[in-house]
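Appendix B. Extra example for self-study. Work through it before the problem class; the solution is given directly after the inputs so you can check yourself.
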Amino acid sequence: MTSLVSIKNLYKKFPIHGDLLDQISFSGGKFHLKHEYVHAINGVNLDVDKGEALCVVGESGCGKSTVARTVMGLLSPSSGEIQYNGQRIDNLSPTAMMPYRRKMQMIFQNPYASLNPRMTITQALEEPVRWHQPKLNTAEVKEKVAEVMASVGIDPSWGVRFPHEFSGGQRQRISIARALIVDPEFIVADEPISALDVSIQAQVLNLLMDAREQRELTYLFITHDLSVVEHFGTRVAVMYLGALCEVAPTRKLFSSPKHPYTQALLSAIPRLEDEKPDFIRLKGEVPTPVNLPSGCVFHGRCPHANERCKQEIPKLLDVDGTRVACHAVEEKRLG
Amino acid sequence: MALLEVKNLEVKFGLRTGEVTALRDISFTLDRGQRLGIVGESGAGKSVAAFSILNLISRPGYISGGEILFDGKDLAKLSTKEMRYIRGNRISMIFQDPMMTLNPVLTVGDQMVECLQAHTKINREEARRISLEKLKLVQIPSPEKRLDQYPHELSGGMKQRIIIAIALLLNPDIIIADEPTTALDVTIQAEIMDLLLELCTSQNLGLILITHDLGVVSQVTEQAIVMYAGRIIEQGPTKEIINDAQHPYTQGLINALPQQGIPGERLNQIRGSMPPLHRIPQGCAFHPRCDYADAICEKELPGFTQSGGCQAACHLVAGRIALKAKAEETH
Amino acid sequence: MQNIEASSPSVWARFKGSHFWHSFKKDKVAILSFVIFLTYILASLLAPLIAPFDPYDMTQFDIMDSEIPPSWQESGDERFVFGTDSQGRDMWSTILYGTRISLTIGICAVLLQAFLGIIIGLAAGYFGGRIDSFLMRLADIQLSFSTLMVAIIVLAVFQAAFGAELYQDLALFMLVLVIGIAEWPQYARTIRASVLAERKKEYVDAARVMGLKSNRIMFRHILPNTLSPILVISTVQIANAIISEASLSFLGLGMPPSQPSLGSLISSGFEFIFSGSWWITIIPGIALIALVLVMNLLGDWLRDVLNPKLYKG
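Solution. Structure tokens for the complete assembly:
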């Protein structure tokens, strides 16, 4: 299988902003400029294969959205590369990036912020078409907009209206239409359903699945909701504190999770069937990404951690078809 | 008689476009040690219900009908002063956003002491001792340290534990929790829910849990209410509602959950979306989205029909039950 | 989904159903202010038609008619409702023409301010980093010179260098330029702040993901969403500009006595106030105060209406 998008050894850190005065510290008789960083992504390697729906899951602050935004070029990586079809794209100029912009699109989390409140739906949808296909005449543009609107279940005659006249679910459909209208091959969806109501979530999820089938799309789907992953994803990557813990085909991950963090995460999903929550309690809290723990970032909360985990950063290794970054699994102490 | 008995509660909002009814015909009871879940999508009126129990609805909203009997007294008719006593001492509330309750410029300890001293005549040391005791009760790690910390020094899960500790300060009879874990991660959510469940048993508390998450309701509560467009459409024992929902909307909600679907297949979606309060259709409010809707559903507001332990407001269920009763008669 | 009608209401119907129109109808102060403001605008636009005399035409006034008190006073003259000034000009006509000049300067100066401020504020907010630091420090420096100080220096130097005659011809233009340039940081700061808030929203990311150019994102997507604060400060800034112009005229650096603005009228009457001719100063003074007050009231009301946090919370 060929990978459509490759994330190679990606790091991203954000300086903790402050004025010059905040940065100056005084110690040992000298003034220093102290630079502090939030280490959002720490060495992520991930390939998205053509046609799959790769889900990235993790709790808030694990860096999953940063991965999405870096892949889309909204953020530039601190180090590492993003490749599309084997071609490095993270260092391209805006003009050189244009052909890739058409192939890669993004769907955002908040349907109330992702549409320009001062543009009608038609304006919002026509803009990308005119921008990327300037050769089309007005009638062709209109036809294309109407076709895509109908395909996401929005009546084309509503195009003259402004976003605030639509409900959250409808707005998310419009956002999806805006992404689909340039005929992309790859879509990054950053928590596209988490701001929506339960009954609407199912509608939007179905829409995304239909679009995948009809347009042969590849998804990078960011979510915190494991039950959505189980339903939607073909493959899952679990992130914790900016690093990948486990990458596995969905069914495999849910039937036999290897990494202790994945196990804890899976046990915490509130299920309809079981009556009492029976979950793996993790000790402590997620450490701050400003001062990362040494070794495995999970070692402070892991019930199976030993000395090696505190020292050495585990690598993603193949263990019966699953890729896991855990010393305990590698040493066969676990699973 | 139950400790809390809500009877035919109705809440209206006077907007400039006219009055809208945000809640109608809400009735339920709750005793100490019972756990009740109120489920619904945003705009269904579940938070309004919670706020109106504590008479916390602010203008332009007001309670326009019905009774909220607590210990035999109607809360809707109490004076501000009497209501304040009830709010602190007998019923407390946990909000979705911890920052709504915690003051960012005061330490946790100061806030707890202040809350205690506002309601009881005790000195500072005693108040601190009680605060510490409650912090231990919510299983917060190193509770002594937390008393002198500011809210921003604590993680989201820890803040929510402190909110629960504050809610427990005056040993209330009932706790109303409005989406207490929506802002939290799954692993923390599981811990907080487990804590609430444990506290209800150990402290003999009544709990009203308001949430959009059916999974949470099924794990924590014994009784459940499903709301749609300002009305209760189904209520009964949680287990029965989850396993054998009667109302098409409840069935739809459960079937729409990704964990109910077959991986990789389309989910069973409910079409359309909930109407806004000022445009609730005539008859059964759910009929435009209902697959089984009949002519009668468009005209007549359905009453409650008993089916097993559940009550559902649906013509379809009523018809089915009537048919069954007839069949039994002829036997 | 069935609750959205297919056709779109007209702009007028949309406006009539809006929160904006509704709160305007309810607010008596806003209605009154708007009516008075409209009267000012109409009066200054129609000045040549309304005014009984042309104050710029030397042949229409006579030095013999000077300092006649308003008509309701004992020694008043029926031809001059508000009396005459020291040159014998009809006060009513002069005030009409003066309002016209004051408003022109106010509006033009604000247009210039808005033009500079919007471009600078957009660039600072959108690009951030060094560009932002540079532009905002520039604004700080500009603000540290008060408007009056800049105006006094520039206008005095201009008068000294090119002579008072050339200055008289170009006075209107110079005043617009000076007041416009001295106050752009107000706009730049307001716009930068709202651009910073808008830039974080996902629709801007969506536009970037589309590959749109920065200019297009700034002007087509972000700018329309910062119009509310622009509208609010514009009203207040027009009032400020009118006051600035009046102050400068009072100091002798504004409009020349041959083409008086409200400020120069007040100033020209000031030396006669103790000799009993109070109307030359007081009447244009009241006209000025009323105009500025009304603009500020409108600005206050706009801010309340357009700030969603204020009316929702």
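Self-check: Confidence is low (pLDDT under 50) at residues 1-7, 309-313 of chain C. If your reasoning did not lead you there, revisit section 3.
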